[in-house]
Amino acid sequence: MDKRTDKKKVPTTFNPHEITSERLKYSVFLTFGLFLMVLAFVLNSPKELWIGSIIILTSPAKLVTDYFELANSGSALLNASLMTFKTLALVRLSKSKITGPIIAALFTVAGFSLFGKNLYNSLPIILGVYGYAKIVRNPFSKHLLPALFGTSLGPLVSEITFNLGLPLFWGIILGTLAGLLIGFVLPPLAKHFAFFHRGFSLYNIGFTAGIIGMFFISILRSFGITIDAYELVSTGNNGIFSVILYSLFAVFFFIGFVLNKWQMIGYRQLLNQSGQSVPDFISLFHFGVVLMNMSLLGLLSTSYILAVGGELNGPIIGGIFTIVGFGAAGKHIKNVLPIFVGVFVVGLFNVSEIHSTSALLAALFGTTLAPISGYYGSLAGFIAGVFHMAMVLNVNYLHAGMNLYNNGFSGGFTAALLVPLFDLFKTIKADRKPNHKKDKPTPLPIKLID
In the beta sheet, which residues pair with residue 65? Predict the structure, then answer.
């Protein structure tokens, strides 16, 4: 392995004999799912939750459909809770361990269950990946991550089922078949496309899903089927949800601090990680350190939204949850902050207002490029944020909102463009130094989500 991938591969404070038990990790994340469920019943009555859940399950879910506005906030949180439990059940049934990437997938699924994913449109894709695993004779655990992240194309299942004017029976049949096909082709394509951006976009499945969604939409458009852009978002949630989010992340920090023996040892070493290729922080650091990192990312993200005058609606909270999850697999405050700044600065001169949902989503999900700032430095991260903001506002048309990970799609292109240029500048700079040692090319991803 090239030692340049991260400044310090294994922190000196990490004791492999103090690895957190799987039971404790399950307990923490089951409690998170239970918290979402209890909150749902606090915010809405059982009748409202039932009606809202039916609306969520039977409505098209293309980007951006805020379940807070489509149904109600309680139903959205209940959907996120059930999807969290489903994810943990899949982890358990596949006999997988809770690793950093699994935690990232768990929180990404929970977050996007507030604006696009649900139990119906995610299941066919997961079954498609399971079918692929059976055919290639691999354990499902090896392809669990593509199954979980691949649910980003759930809106395509819902769109075909409920929004093409088909009889319900045929809509369900065709929507399910589309989901199965997506799941089946996703693992091999994701493994291949990771080399396109060389691991510098953490949302590799988002890029792969964008390519798949683009092909599906092209086929639909060739038959004269038009799928228009869509944005349904809620407002007026800042008061209660700022309290909820700050409290949740404070609890995460407290739990992590206690587990880490009431100290911050190990966190500085975590900040030295570049984040390239979705690293497993759980295998490198104590679980308590990782929880504290996740907490600080949540606090930073929430504060950014409120500071620029944004709304804490379903998509925005989903973005915050995604950043928090990737706090176990590549992100930390040091490598995401330059991305925030880059998106913010270009947003001041952009046609989209900096506090608009689209601009805020670009900032939150633009942190898919955090490895660029972690590897090449803060200035490179700032530049990546600038380019990402410009790119992400123009690629949604290609998949018509069918890929929920639109920023992952955009981030893949941005990384593919910038990484070779940053390598070139690095080489030129090194060549000007006397007695320099020639740098090796940027390493390809060591560990891929396949």
Answer: 232
